[in-house]
Design brief:
- The protein is mainly beta.
- It has 2 domains: 138 residues, Immunoglobulins (Immunoglobulin-like), CATH 2.60.40; 86 residues, Sandwich (Immunoglobulin-like), CATH 2.60.40.
- It has 3 helices and 18 strands.
- A 5-stranded mixed sheet has the order 2-9-8-4-6. Strands 1-3-7-5 form a 4-stranded antiparallel sheet, with no helix packed on it. The protein has a 4-stranded antiparallel sheet with strand order 14-13-17-18.
- A hairpin with a 2-residue loop joins strand 10 and strand 11.
Length: 234
């Protein structure tokens, strides 16, 4: 059976399995692709005890897209590879210069890494899973007017019609860890469903205890996976 067909056929199953079971570990929590680079590299490491078959591709926020249907303007090489136990492999991501992307803001794509473990020894009963990891890939134009850390400080938060509104007036995707309202009595109230906000966009949330809040505390994730926490007063 053709390897590419075999791996693609496992996508539906792999989407239901958590990445904690994977033998392949990806260095970093996201990929940044500066527009002036010919390519960027991503390091994979097989921390399992057996050889792994790996397929990689990029999608344009379509979670069901596979390597044969994706419309993302990127090439990943090698698209299919094997990685021995305790060994590594570098992926090279190349942008298709024929497609034009926004020059005044980031564009979000997703890097997919599908890990198919080796078949166990014959004669043993087994249940085999293919594991797919998805990491955000941000295509970042050069010449943006502000730096990422400056963008964090420009977030705006306000009450609008009894709902919390968070505004991102910057050219960056803002990615959040857990965030909270700080109530007048000092207690915290978690803001749910806040994952990321696109450039130059707003989101509104129904939040418990909004009327009792004096400020909102937001934890943002930078390019290196570190957290920056800011507080906005109402």
């Amino acid at each position: 059976m053709n390897k590419q067909f075999f791996i693609s056929a496992l996508l539906t199953l792999s989407a239901m399995v958590t990445s904690a079971q994977a033998g392949i570990v990806i260095t970093g929590t996201r990929v940044i692709y500066p527009s002036d680079k010919e390519f960027v590299s991503v390091q994979l490491t097989n921390v399992g005890e057996q050889i792994a078959l790996v397929q990689s591709w990029i999608d344009d926020k379509d979670i069901i897209a596979d390597p044969t249907t994706t419309k993302a303007p990127f090439i990943v090489t090698p698209p299919i590879t094997t990685i021995e136990a305790s060994k590594g492999q570098s992926l090279r991501i190349i942008f298709n210069q024929k497609q034009k992307l926004a020059s005044d803001r980031e564009t979000l794509f997703w890097l997919n890494v599908l890990d198919v473990p080796a078949k166990p020894e014959q004669g043993k009963n087994y249940l085999q899973f293919a594991i797919r990891n998805r990491l955000k890939l941000f295509y970042r134009p050069t010449g943006l007017k502000i730096e990422q850390q400056q963008a964090f400080q420009k977030i705006e938060a306000q009450r609008t019609n009894n709902r919390l509104e968070i505004n991102n007036p910057t050219p960056y995707y803002l990615n959040f860890a857990k965030s909270h309202l700080i109530l007048k009595n000092g207690a915290l109230s978690e803001i749910k469903n806040l994952s990321f906000i696109e450039p130059f966009s707003k989101q509104q949330f129904d939040v418990e205890n909004l009327a009792d809040a004096k400020s909102v505390q937001l934890s943002l994730i930078d390019d290196y996976g570190s957290l920056s926490t800011i507080e906005k007063q109402f």
